[in-house]
Amino acid sequence: QVQLVESGGGLVQPGGSLRLSCVVSGSDFSILGMYWYRQAPGKEREQVAGVSSSTFYSDSVKGRFTIARDNAKNTVYLQMNSLKPEDTAVYFCNAHVWKRTWLAARPYWGQGTQVTVSS
Questions:
Q1: pLDDT by residue (tens digit) across 103-117?
Q2: Could you give the CA distance from residue 102 to residue 69 in angstroms, rounded to a whole number?
Q3: Which DSSP state fits 66?
Q4: Rounded to whole angstroms, how far apart are CA atoms 38 and 74?
Q5: Dist CA 112 CA 93 (whole Å)
Q6: pLDDT tens digit sequence for 73-92
Q7: Helix (H/G/I), strand (E/B), else coil: 6
């Protein structure tokens, strides 16, 4: 069974920084891509960053957030700098996982971690 566990959320003042982590655990799998999403109250879940063969960012976080992946640790990080109140949301980790017995990769989600940007 594949599991994702996020950590690193919390309360931070505007202009501050946080680093989120997401660890993927399980056995006999490959991770094809890792992504961060967020969902603010009353809004749809949006993808903010991802890393597979390349990295990408949504326009709302480009230049402020950095995604990094440690393949040896099956971990993805999201460094968030210059945080704004509009970055307040629950942040979710997503991984596309593949096993040899599967025809296609499957998406897995973490439980989410709250990020609140407020003075």
A1: 899 999 999 999 999
A2: 24
A3: E
A4: 21
A5: 7
A6: 999 999 999 999 999 999 99
A7: strand
